[in-house]
TrEMBL record:
This is DUF2344 domain-containing protein. It comes from the Bacteria. InterPro entries: DUF2344. Residues 3-190 form the DUF2344 domain. Pfam families: DUF2344 (PF10105). It comes from Pelotomaculum propionicicum.
Length: 225
């Protein structure tokens, strides 16, 4: 088998595709493009595709990662061209390259993620007021949020250890908030959880909903900016 690592953007209408549906979309697109997708053996074969840390429905992604295995060796440029022409609106291929079949899984490699949120302000806000609110929020020894488990029971988590950086700026009536958070196979911090906790404490004058984007994924061993 031959493994290909795909970097793609998930924007516009595609940001509402769930993580579970994403596999089906890639599988259908690859078959429509005539690519020889490799499948698992057994009674219920499925395509040999894996994705990096899942995105929440409604969050866009500027540089997402997926691994796809093909049954025969094809030039990555040909794979990219064929697959790009079969993708639905909002899924855009950025790069396709070969990767060793024995390479570590994407979920094992991904360690951090960078995010950006944007919203309109209901009233004026100065940059220094926003900066003080962020500093006060990050100064807390614990930031406790609630998550609902698979059994339906809610459980408390401290997300403060997984917040590596957070900043914000104001441009006229637009506020932008950026963060670098723990992600991967354990200790994940969800951007929407961070924002909910921050907005509850800061009571910033927002109008409407925040638009969320994951701007990048950082692999283990990569330099952190």
């Amino acid at each position: 088998m031959f493994r290909y690592r795909i970097i793609y953007a998930k924007v516009g209408p595609a940001r509402y595709i769930s993580h579970l549906d994403l596999l089906r979309v890639f599988d259908r697109s690859a078959r429509r493009a005539g690519l020889p997708v490799a499948y698992t053996q057994g009674f219920n074969p499925h395509p040999k595709m894996t994705f990096a840390a899942p995105l929440s429905v409604g969050t866009a992604g500027e540089a997402e990662y997926a691994d796809m295995e093909l049954a025969r060796d094809i030039d990555p440029a040909v794979v990219k061209s064929a697959l790009a022409g079969a993708m639905p609106q909002g899924l855009r291929l950025i790069e396709v390259d070969r990767t060793p079949e024995a390479a570590a899984s994407l979920m094992a490699l991904v360690e951090r993620a960078t995010y950006s949120a944007r919203a309109e302000l209901a009233s004026p806000l100065r940059d220094e007021v926003l900066a003080r609110a962020i500093d006060s929020f990050l100064a807390r020894p614990q930031i406790i949020i609630e998550r609902q488990g698979k059994a339906g029971a809610k459980k408390e988590y401290d997300i403060r250890p997984g917040i590596f950086a957070m900043s914000g700026c104001v441009n006229n009536d637009i506020i932008k908030i950026k963060a670098e958070l723990k992600t991967g196979s354990s200790g994940n911090v969800r951007f929407e959880e961070l924002l909910a906790a921050f907005l509850k404490e800061s009571r910033l004058p927002l109008r409407g909903r925040l638009s969320l984007t994951r701007t990048g994924l950082l692999f283990r061993g990569a330099e952190q900016g």
